[in-house]
# Entry
Amino acid sequence: MKTIRDNAPGRTVRKWTLRLAGACSLALAAISATAAPALAAPPVSVPEIRLTGLKAWSGRSLTAFYVASYRPAFSQNGSQPQVRAITAPPVRFTIPASGELTIPAKEIRHPGTELTNLLIFAVHSPAMRALYLRNADQSVPRDPRLSDPDSAKSLSQQDFETDALGRLPLREIQDGGPVAVPFNSLSH
# Structure
């Protein structure tokens, strides 16, 4: 620390305070960097899922979204969950004529504290380049494909159009067993 010798008694204290504040922020940054891995959510293993009962949509596309969601504050039976974030890039499939589709197992590592707890399946046109999710309140959840929250404003209505939506809580998935997901046939 450089000592300033003049008639301003608080100046030395101010320089000392600034240096101390800088040292404290450096120490806090070091502590948070070492504590960050401890705060990250543990990886989630999603087993292979075999979807059945999709014959009505054969030839259409199905996109699977791995999401972190919560129930709305005032939820009723059949109310939609509020999606906070899409936790892994969505996976897209073409529904075969048999109406059965296998989604491979996946391990999702979470950089933050968002934990994957729900799969959302959307049936849509195969001509769509990309499909995005929108909550019932019209908000767009965090999505790894969008560079920042403002880029969601550039999406058009067509980027959200689906033929049907289905939800499957991860706690209900049994390893490799067939799953008939209840779909709501509606445009979203």
Remarks:
- The longest helix spans residues 9-39.
- Confidence is low (pLDDT under 50) at residues 13-18.
- Residues 44-185 form a domain with the Immunoglobulin-like fold (CATH 2.60.40).
- The two ends are 63 Å apart (CA to CA).
